[in-house]
Amino acid sequence: MNKIIAVSNQKGGVGKTTTAINLAASLAMADRSVLLVDLDPQSNLTSGLGLTARSPDGATVYHALTSDQVLDPVPFELVTEVTGLRVIPSDRNLTGAEVELVALPNRESRLRPFLRQARSRYDFIFIDTPPSLGLLALNALVAADSVLIPMNCEYFALEGLAELTATIARVQAGLNPDLTLEGILLTMADSRTRLGQGVAEEVRAHFADKVYTTTIPRNIRLAEAPGHGIPAILYDVRSTGAEAYLSLARELLERHSPAAPPKPLL
Q1: CATH code of 121's domain
Q2: CB of 54 within 8 A of CB of 25?
Q3: Residue 263: inside a domain
Q4: Which run of H or of E encompasses 127?
Q5: Which of the four pLDDT bands, split at 50, 70 and 90, describes residue 53?
Q6: What does the radius of gyration of the chain's CA atoms come to, in whole angstroms?
Q7: DSSP codes joined into one string, 148-214
Q8: For residue range 182-230, what is the model confidence (pLDDT) as tens digits?
Q9: Does some domain include residue 118?
Q10: Domain for residue 261, yes or no?
Q11: 262: in domain
């Protein structure tokens, strides 16, 4: 497969980091090799997996973006508690990267050569992006093969989705013509509310089979797990949140390998 997928939405609080962590962990539990890249200056993905902000030699994704040379990703990769899942961490230095990148050559595509060196060693590479459409998010879109968009079932999420799909189209036109839409994931879903039902119906009507059948419910275990530095699948595998991400991983694998059913997930 060797897919590089950007998990992106310029709207905050829609479950990007939660999705990146738990989908990656679920795929790793299905014997896939997975790399997570923390491209958000808040470093929530790094801390949510119980990792220190820096790799043993002090390297973070900030160094990969701002170096004069294309660095080897191997020294950046941190081992997690999930077999087959590794992380390239972030720290607060990434906050200044948006400003520093402006003056650097190839400012929109500095992440791509770095990750292309790693892709042959992983089935999936997921990039967790910041809640903006600045140079960091743009680097993720240029480096990626496809974009996975988590969106919560609220009215303003529809406006954000329109902006993001327009940005994807611009990136396709000028910087990454092979970029595709991996899928749209409905998060924080509550089928009991008319608003949630209406937003879900509108998104499915417009994007059809690009919307995952799996939806992610509001679940306290998903919120608690990062505080323990582990994904929900290790914190409480029987929680509705963990089960939803296992279902999403199964659906993603089926989409990529329809002729070869994936190994059952737990």
Answers
A1: 3.40.50.300
A2: no
A3: no
A4: strand 124-128
A5: low
A6: 17
A7: EEEEESSHHHHHHHHHHHHHHHHHHHHT-TT-EEEEEEEEEE-TTSHHHHHHHHHHHHHHGGGEEEE
A8: 999 999 877 666 766 777 888 888 888 899 999 999 899 999 999 999 9
A9: yes
A10: no
A11: no
**How far, in Å, CA of 259 to CA of 147, rounded?**
23
Which residues, including other chains, have CB under 8 Å from residue 126's CB and lie 6 or more apart?
5, 6, 7, 20, 23, 24, 34, 35, 36, 37, 148
Look at the block and give the residue holding tokens 């992610």. 216
Tokens of 145: 């093969």
Give me the number of domains the chain comprises.
Answer: 1
Do 185 and 16 contact (CB within 8 A), yes or no?
no
C-alpha dihedral (153, 27, 177, 67), degrees to nearest 10: 110
Domain that holds residue 105: 3-256
Give yes or no for a contact between 4 and 35, defined as CB atoms under 8 angstroms apart: no
Angle in degrees, CA 203, 207, 213, rounded to 5: 75
Q: What angle do CA 124, 129, 227 make, to 5 degrees?
A: 85
